[in-house]
């Protein structure tokens, strides 16, 4: 008799249907993106709701997200104003101070309305633990959802280890010290939580930012995005100093001026503090006619760009931050079935495997050569796209992460006993069943 292999979606649905977090109350605080635009946070929030928890989120306003309060898909969303995207030390101090003020005010508001037992802080920045300290006086616990390694991010942006870098290490240490549970986006982050943060291994859970395949789907291509050219190369992500878009623009210049390829259009989806400077850089390089910047765009535009693209790119520089970080765009490219060009970094290679080709570290010319080689080889593109889609379906979609997120919260609420390597074992004692 053949053994029936359960699909990850079925396993996740059955787990959530059992309402393992029924009666629990969770407050999620995220500072750098609005919800539901922040896809990881939104997937976590809606999953916790489906598991029976009451979930509230505090986040900033953003383009298209300007209501101070909304109730969407069972999630209570409280939004606040923030200064414009920070650039420089004074800008960051202003932004973080304003965020802390509103996070504290709104946390008291949530506590008086929906209530909460646990605060989940999502970095950056690593200052949300200060809100958690206040509510420890009221018996609330803290879960740290580790999105970015901020000391490495600072060094990638500014190229130095100075007083502010040391302050970030200090804030990171205090964040881990405050947290009862840490949720890491990959094994590299888990290692940091244990070795640099001093967390016990059984209290660190890897929950990857896998795409929800019910949301991330291929759609009909839009030929107009090619601007009359034969090929489209797509990029999705933040327009920041550390994302390597300048290297990509150098690659475009090399492709157009030296390889004499005028049949390729590039479409870059995303907003951020460097968007306008990057537009100017494209003009200065003389390639602005070959590069479309959409700015921050809704999912409909994002998926249309990816579905029209022949190749997708991730030009993140090779540095400590990018080497250890999992980039959501890689998984979304794979979910749409598109081949990838990126530089060779540890977590990028783990995610993509043979769905990507890997250029020499920070070499824009080799990056350009890899793009052109893929565009000229349709069979390889098709094969790599299929590998990526299959890898997401079998290993990296959000359905695979649902049991891990629930296990982390069961541990945080004391519903399970610790196991090995961040895993958990169900406790059968009455005290645990009662949530004591």
Percent range for helical residues? 40-55%
Strand order of the largest sheet: 3-4-2-1-5-6-7-8
Write down the Rg: 22 Å
Task: Quote the CATH topology of the largest domain.
Answer: Rossmann fold
C-alpha termini separation: 44 Å
Coarse morphology: globular
CATH first level of the largest domain: Alpha Beta
At the fourth level of CATH, the homologous superfamily of the largest domain is: Glycogen Phosphorylase B
* SS summary, helix count: 17
Strand content: 15-25%
Your description of this structure?
This protein has 436 residues and is of the alpha/beta class. It has two domains: 20-210 and 397-433, Glycogen Phosphorylase B (Rossmann fold), CATH 3.40.50; 223-395, Glycogen Phosphorylase B (Rossmann fold), CATH 3.40.50. The protein has helices at residues 8-17, 39-50, 89-113, 129-136, 150-158, 163-178, 187-195, 245-258, 275-285, 299-308, 320-324, 328-336, 346-352, 364-375, 378-396, 398-412, 430-433; strands at residues 25-30, 54-60, 69-72, 75-80, 118-122, 141-146, 181-184, 204-206, 231-236, 264-269, 291-295, 311-314, 340-343, 356-359, 416-418, 424-426. The termini are far apart. Residues 1-5 and 420-436 have low confidence and may be disordered. Pfam families: Glyco_trans_1_4 (PF13692), Glyco_transf_4 (PF13439). This is Glycosyltransferase involved in cell wall biosynthesis. It comes from Kaistia dalseonensis.
List keywords for this structure.
436 residues, alpha/beta, Rossmann fold, eight-stranded mixed sheet, six-stranded parallel sheet, 17 helices, 16 strands, 45% helix, disordered N terminus, disordered C terminus
């Amino acid at each position: 008799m053949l053994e029936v292999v359960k699909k990850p979606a079925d396993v996740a649905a059955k787990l959530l249907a059992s309402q393992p977090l029924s009666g629990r109350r969770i407050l999620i605080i995220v500072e750098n993106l609005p919800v539901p635009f922040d896809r990881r946070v939104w997937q976590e929030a809606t999953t916790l709701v489906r598991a029976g928890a009451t979930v509230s989120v505090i986040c900033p306003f953003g383009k298209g997200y300007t209501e101070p309060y909304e109730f969407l898909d069972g999630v209570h969303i409280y939004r606040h104003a923030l200064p414009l995207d920070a650039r420089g030390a004074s800008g960051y101090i202003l932004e973080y101070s304003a965020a802390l003020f509103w996070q504290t005010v709104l946390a008291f508001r949530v506590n008086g309305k929906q209530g909460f037992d646990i605060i989940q802080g999502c970095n950056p920045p690593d200052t949300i633990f200060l809100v958690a300290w206040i509510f420890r006086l009221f018996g609330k616990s803290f879960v740290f959802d580790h999105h970015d390694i901020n000391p490495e991010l600072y060094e990638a942006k500014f190229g130095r280890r100075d007083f502010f870098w040391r302050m970030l290490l200090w804030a990171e240490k205090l964040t881990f010290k405050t947290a009862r549970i840490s949720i890491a986006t990959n094994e590299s982050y888990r290692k940091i939580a244990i070795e640099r943060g001093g967390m016990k291994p059984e209290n660190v859970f890897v929950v990857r930012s896998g795409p929800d395949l019910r949301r991330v789907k291929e759609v009909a291509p839009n030929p107009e995005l090619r601007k009359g050219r034969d090929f489209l190369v797509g990029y999705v992500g933040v327009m920041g100093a550390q994302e390597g878009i300048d290297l990509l623009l150098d690659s475009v210049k090399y492709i157009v001026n030296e390889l004499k390829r005028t049949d390729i259009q590039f479409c870059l989806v995303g907003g951020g503090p460097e968007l306008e400077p990057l537009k100017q850089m494209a003009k200065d390089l003389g390639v602005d006619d070959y590069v479309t910047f959409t700015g921050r765009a809704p999912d409909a535009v994002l998926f249309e760009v990816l579905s029209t693209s022949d190749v997708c790119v991730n030009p993140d520089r090779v540095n400590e931050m990018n080497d250890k970080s999992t980039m959501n765009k890689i998984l979304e490219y794979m979910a749409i079935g598109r081949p990838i060009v990126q530089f060779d970094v540890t977590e990028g290679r783990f995610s993509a495997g043979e769905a990507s080709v890997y250029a020499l570290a920070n070499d824009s010319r080799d990056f350009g050569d890899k793009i052109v080689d893929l565009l000229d080889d349709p069979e390889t593109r098709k094969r790599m796209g299929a590998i990526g889609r299959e890898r997401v379906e079998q290993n990296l979609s959000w359905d695979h992460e649902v049991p891990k997120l629930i296990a982390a919260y069961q541990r945080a609420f004391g519903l399970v006993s610790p196991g090995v390597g961040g895993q958990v074992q169900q406790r059968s004692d009455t005290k645990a069943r009662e949530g004591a």
